[in-house]
Amino acid sequence: MAGSDPTDGTVAAPDTVKILIAGGFGVGKTTMVGSVSEIAPLRTEEPLTVAGLDIDDLKGIEEKRSTTVALDFGRITIADDLVLYLFGTPGQQRFWFMWNDLAIGALGAVVLVDVRRPESSFAAIDFFERRSIPFVVGVNGFHGLHPYPAEEIRESLALPADVPVLLCDARERESCRDVLIALIDRLIADVEPRPSPAR
Amino acid sequence: MSGGDEAGRLVRPFALTGGRTRPSRADFTLITTVTTVDPPPERAARPQPEHARILRLCARPVAVAELAARLDLPVSVVVIMLCDLLEAGLITARPPRPVTATGDLDLDLLQKVRDGLGRI
């Protein structure tokens, strides 16, 4: 349950957790966020000159072109006291420095793969593998069509056996939900073989 | 016109922070939840308009990312203003739920998320 608050009228805040939705540019990340989010996907934009570079004052900023990196996200209320946020990671490779911040404290990630150009998601897969961040792969079919079986896609992406690969449709709520559940199931499977020292 | 809207969009938000581009503390992640303290502490200075706007939006708990999106301001700008409000005792900040318990992922938390997803 939410923690104590200093005064009576202050509303108790819920716990929050997050999952990242990653993948190449235009692979359907924001579509997926929108399909399962209880709110229309929100967007926040960060000026790169401030977020990405070591600038301590704004001298000369008026001469720079405004470059922003956009973050789309959505929300799922899991329970009265627990809210899950879904963050679509910026797809352009040059904005990847943002991913480290995003990845801190995340439960895990969904890497969306476009069946027509899987190579656009190689870098995302690599990112999570290198950092040992658990992920599942969702293969987003073009118009919901899936010409290749999941195992064939696993081979072509050289994914280890413990990474679930699901055929999905980013436009469909149930389909996206099942991908998220597959991620949680993978996380649970990673924990359960060992006795939990916390209990 | 030189400068124009593009540059204006960048410069204006940091006018709200008195030119500061760095937060004074590290309490705020994207999913830290912010809640306005009600009633506000006695002797609290009258908040500036943008601060007052945040206080209104946070009457119910709001995550930092959501707040930034609703204010249409960069997260980095909002965080600096939130630092001011936290130091003035006008808001509380609840950090994200840790996903690990003694080194392992928190199984109770995972089960709760799974059950919740099953219901949507």
From TrEMBL, chain A:
Gene3D superfamilies reported in the protein's UniProt record: P-loop containing nucleotide triphosphate hydrolases
Q: Organism's domain of life? A: Bacteria
Cited Pfam families: ATP_bind_1
Tell me one GO molecular function of this protein. ATP binding
Q: Which UniProt keywords apply?
A: ATP-binding, GTP-binding, Hydrolase, Nucleotide-binding
Report the sequence similarity comment from the record: Belongs to the GPN-loop GTPase family.
UniProt-recorded name of the protein: ATP-binding protein
TrEMBL record, chain B:
Q: Which domain of life is it from?
A: Bacteria
| Record-linked Pfam families | DUF742
Report the SUPFAM superfamilies cross-referenced here.
Answer: Winged helix' DNA-binding domain (SSF46785)
Name of the protein in question:
DUF742 domain-containing protein
Taxon lineage: Bacteria, Bacillati, Actinomycetota, Actinomycetes, Kitasatosporales
